[in-house]
Amino acid sequence: MLSAETLGISPYRHTILQQVADLLEREQLKLDMGTSCSLESAEEEVEQVEACGTHACIGGWMAILERNGGKLPRYITREDEQTAYQVVLREVGDNGLHPLHDLFYDTLNSGVTPAQGAQAIRNFLHTGNPDWDSVLAGH
Q: Where are the domains of the chain?
């Protein structure tokens, strides 16, 4: 596994990414890599669902875990959703320059399974490349 420094991310985010992969592999999180994040849609969804079973992208789950000290909250709050929105869209952005960009944005595919999301994270942690093409092709 590559170090946080080599990947260009903080040690805390390195740990959180591993946690998200573990939770996805255990199917404790649902994953939606096909819906573009917006604060408005997040606010609509947060009124209806609990954290476990909520659909979020990899970056959204990272942000929610970061905000909650590495723990999955029982309920996702508006503040959790706003943090996810800020991390995914404002911090990482869609310009391709952030180290996590390809993990967050290289696929806009709503059919990504939790296992595939976990594999993309593991690929990123080991090579710096999520290799979505290979993950989605089942290799």
A: 4-137
17-50 exposure pattern, b = at least 16 Cβ within 10 A, e = fewer? bebbbebbbeeebbbbbeeebeeeebeeebeeee
pLDDT digits (tens, 9 = 90+) for 76-116: 776 776 677 677 666 666 666 788 888 887 666 668 899 99
Spell out the residues 6+ positions from residue 28 whose beta carbon is closer than 8 angstroms to its own. Answer: 52, 72
Q: Please state whether 70 falls in left (phi above 0), alpha (psi between -120 and 50) or beta.
A: left
Q: Are 63 and 83 in contact (CB under 8 A)?
A: yes
Q: Give the whole-angstrom CA distance, residue 92 versus residue 97.
A: 8
* pLDDT tens readout for residues 39-68: 444 444 444 444 434 557 888 888 888 888
